[in-house]
Structures are given as structure tokens and as C-alpha cells.
Design a protein that fits this description.
The chain is of the alpha+beta class. It is about 60% helix and about 5% strand. A hairpin with a 6-residue loop joins strand 4 and strand 5. InterPro entries: CdaR-like_regulators (IPR051448), PucR-like_N (IPR058663), PucR_C-HTH_dom (IPR025736), PucR_C-HTH_sf (IPR042070). It comes from Actinokineospora spheciospongiae.
Length: about 425
């Protein structure tokens, strides 16, 4: 028997059209395409109902041959037909073939079972780590195997060629329907997994930054669920809040970096600071950042707190406005501003002593005193750093001594002056907490 031509039906041509249809060809295409799962319904209605009863006895053979053809054509499906894989493969093929018979007999037949079967098949493709290509290829190959049997059986049963062509057209549209439903299930599972994954990582980040630290067991369990390897140390990066932050590109920092760009206090948790920090600035996409110190994981909240403090000092003009502020390079300023009321109290006598000077005099005297303190009272070194004559330094220091009295001779007072010098030039409403 020539299986390439049955009852006047050119099987090769029909299979070619089936392949075109599966790639998005003319059947079922166009802007007026019906919703998922109903493209083939009008075509089934034009098939003679009696054909279903005449072909239904072939159901077991159709299912078996379709499965064999699928496993031969799709590498991902070349595995024992057992367990969850066997359940989904056999169940999907059986649902698809049996629904064909139902549609031929009654085009308005309930579609809920096969819709659920192929939506579930699409979900399982994602959960098993396969792409939709495998499932779509399986549908096309299975449909081709079924069509070959139907076309051969149609000749033997004396079914007119025109009727078989209508069946073929219905199968083409049915392939589209099956793929659309399966893709919907796949994308649903993908979206749910992505949402759950991101939600677990946000919960993990919140747990890591909690104060007091969360119980170790809770952290371990949530880290495992979020596919995050617990590090020995971390660094927290606080990002400047921007009203357009939702429209900025997400930094490409790697899957192991925990990211919160949605809240009013956006930040990152870097589990490998030594490797990740050197490339940080280039990945921030225009965001200003403050990098907290590298600390043990249990102290992550402290790293975040210092980074927040550094960002606040940048906004207030205490620290310079740069793309990335490093806490490790500004520890003295962070220490000084840890208790601003105390800083204001300690700095007040110096500021009061300089109050009657003009702005220009105050800056000149303050810079001389700061440099003198840094050089431990070395006049020549102070003059060199200020690019003035040593005699000028002596003159200014005499002026400062008149303003401050015996404080310059007191080691403790000199120490307090040095650690509060950043606050000397700030107005009262800036240093006040």
C-alpha cells in the first residue's frame, strides 16, 4: 500500500502543510484568530460525525504509535515511559486523541479535560527544565503519526478524500490549539516560579538585615529555598532613593547578590565583597551608592546602618558627592557623627571662639589649625602643606592661641579638636540632631 497517497489524499503534502502550520503558517493565523483551544472547533463541525465511531477502535494503536514517534523524534523524551514523565506523556497523548473523537462526534463537546491536560503538560515542561520546543515538536510529530493512521484507515473504510482533507485541516488547527494551551501552562509556571523565587530572596534579605539577627536555622532554611549559598561575610550597599528607580536598568551583579530596588530604602547584599566591590561602580547604572564595611553575616545590619549614615552625610554635604562613598575610607567622620549631639557639644567652644571672625578669616584659621593638629604641631610641615611661609604659620597659631587660650596645651583638648574638626564650619542647624 502506498502510504504517501491514500484515497486521493497526498499525505506528504498534508504533512508539509502541518509543519508550516506549526511554524505559524496560514491555518489559524490572523488577527481574528479565536481564543486558545477553539481554533479547530468550527472545522470539526464540518466532519461527518460517523467517522469518529469508525476510527475510534484505532485509539490504542494511535496512542502507542504517537508515543513511539515522539520518543524517536524528540531527544528530551527518550527515557522510560514511567513515573511522572510517563504519566504526563501518555496522559497528554491520550487526552489529545480521545478529544479528537469527541469533537468529531460533537464539536461543542466539553474541552475542560484536554485543556487541563495540556496546560499541565506545559507546566511540567518548565518544572522538568525543558524548553517549550520539545513539547511543540512532540505535538507536531504525534499529530503526523495520527494523521498517517487516519488517512490509511480512511481508505480502507472507504471514507471520501474530501472528508479526509477536512479531518487533516482540523488536525492542523488542533495542533495550534494544543500548543497555545501548553505554552500558556508553561508561561504560568515560569511566572509563578520567578515570582516565588524573587519573593523568597526578598524575605531572605529582610531576614539577613534584621536587628537583632534572625535565628541561624531560619536563615539556613530560607537560604536553601532561595538557592543562596550562605557566606561567611557580606557587605551591604545602600543605594540613593530616586523617584525614577523603577525605570533604571537592574545592575548586572550576578545571581548571588541579593537586590532590593523596589522599596524606599533600596540596597544590595554582596556575599563576596572582595570579588564584587571592585566592579561595583560600573554596574550601578547612574545610581549613587554608599558601601558599608565588610562584616560577618550576623552583623549585616550594622554594615547597612553605617552605609545609611554615610549616604545621609553625603546628602548633607559633610561627605563629598561622589558616585560611590566607601565607609572604610570615612571611618573618622562616621565615628564623629555617630552621636551628633555630643559632636555639637564638643565642637561648640571652637566654633564660639571663631564666631567673630569673617568667613575668610575663619576658613584660614580653621585650615591652619587642622593642618597643625595633623602634623602634631610641626610648623615647617604645616607651612609646606599650606604652601605658606613658616613665619605665617607662627603668626596664625599665635592668633589661634589668643582665641582658644590654654586648650592648645591640653592633650585631651587637642584630641577632641582633631576628631570634631569636620563640624567646625557647619551651621548649627546642620550639626544638630
Amino acid at each position: 500500500m502506498d502510504t504517501k497517497s491514500c484515497g486521493g489524499v497526498d499525505i506528504a503534502r498534508v504533512e508539509g502543510e502541518m509543519a508550516v502550520t506549526q511554524r505559524g503558517g496560514p491555518v489559524g493565523s490572523g488577527s481574528d484568530k479565536p481564543g486558545p483551544g477553539v481554533t479547530a472547533v468550527p472545522i470539526w463541525a464540518s466532519v461527518v460525525p460517523g467517522i469518529a465511531d469508525r476510527v475510534r477502535p484505532l485509539a490504542r494503536t494511535l496512542i502507542q504509535d504517537a508515543v513511539e514517534a515522539i520518543q524517536e523524534a524528540v531527544p528530551a523524551y527518550r527515557q522510560p515511559v514511567e513515573g511522572k514523565f510517563g504519566e504526563v506523556l501518555l496522559g497528554s497523548v491520550q487526552a489529545a486523541i480521545m478529544q479528537c473523537f469527541e469533537f468529531i462526534a460533537d464539536p461543542t463537546a466539553d474541552r475542560s479535560d484536554w485543556l487541563a491536560a495540556f496546560r499541565y503538560a506545559g507546566r511540567m515542561e518548565f518544572l522538568e527544565g525543558r524548553t517549550m520546543d520539545s513539547l511543540q515538536t512532540a505535538v507536531r510529530v504525534g499529530a503526523r503519526a495520527v494523521w498517517r493512521h487516519v488517512s490509511v484507515a480512511g481508505q480502507e473504510l472507504g471514507i471520501p478524500a474530501d472528508t479526509l482533507l477536512t479531518v487533516a485541516e482540523a488536525i492542523f488547527a488542533y495542533v495550534d490549539d494544543l500548543c497555545v494551551v501548553a505554552v500558556a501552562g508553561y508561561t504560568e509556571a515560569q511566572a509563578q516560579a520567578s515570582g516565588s523565587y524573587e519573593r523568597r530572596r526578598r524575605q531572605l534579605m529582610k531576614l539577613i538585615l534584621s536587628d537583632p539577627p534572625a535565628p541561624t536555622q531560619s536563615l539556613v532554611e530560607l537560604a536553601a529555598a532561595a538557592d543562596w549559598q550562605i557566606p561567611d561575610e557580606v557587605a551591604v550597599v545602600v543605594l540613593e532613593y530616586r523617584t525614577d528607580q523603577h525605570h533604571l536598568p537592574v545592575p548586572a551583579l550576578g545571581r548571588d547578590v541579593l537586590v532590593d530596588l523596589e522599596s524606599g530604602d533600596p540596597c544590595l547584599v554582596l556575599p563576596a565583597p572582595r570579588a564584587q566591590l571592585p566592579n561595583l561602580e560600573g554596574q550601578l547604572q547612574g545610581r549613587r551608592a554608599a558601601v558599608g564595611p565588610t562584616v560577618p553575616l550576623a552583623d549585616a545590619h550594622r554594615s547597612q546602618r553605617l552605609a545609611r549614615q554615610a549616604m545621609s552625610l553625603v546628602h548633607r554635604g559633610v561627605l563629598p558627592e561622589v558616585a560611590v562613598t566607601w565607609c572604610s575610607r570615612n571611618l573618622s567622620t562616621l565615628l564623629m557623627f555617630a552621636d551628633e549631639s555630643l559632636v555639637t557639644h564638643v565642637a561648640q567652644p571652637i566654633r564660639a571662639a571663631f564666631a567673630d571672625l569673617t568667613d575668610k578669616q575663619r576658613e584660614r584659621v580653621a585650615s591652619t589649625l587642622r593642618t597643625w593638629l595633623h602634623t602634631r604641631g610641626d610648623i615647617n610641615e604645616t607651612a609646606s602643606r599650606l604652601a605658606v611661609h613658616p613665619q605665617t604659620v607662627r603668626y596664625r597659631m599665635n592668633q589661634i592661641e589668643e582665641l582658644l587660650g590654654d586648650r592648645l596645651n591640653d592633650p585631651e583638648q587637642r584630641f577632641l579638636m582633631e576628631i570634631t574638626m569636620h563640624a567646625w564650619h557647619l551651621p548649627d542647624d546642620t550639626t544638630a540632631n
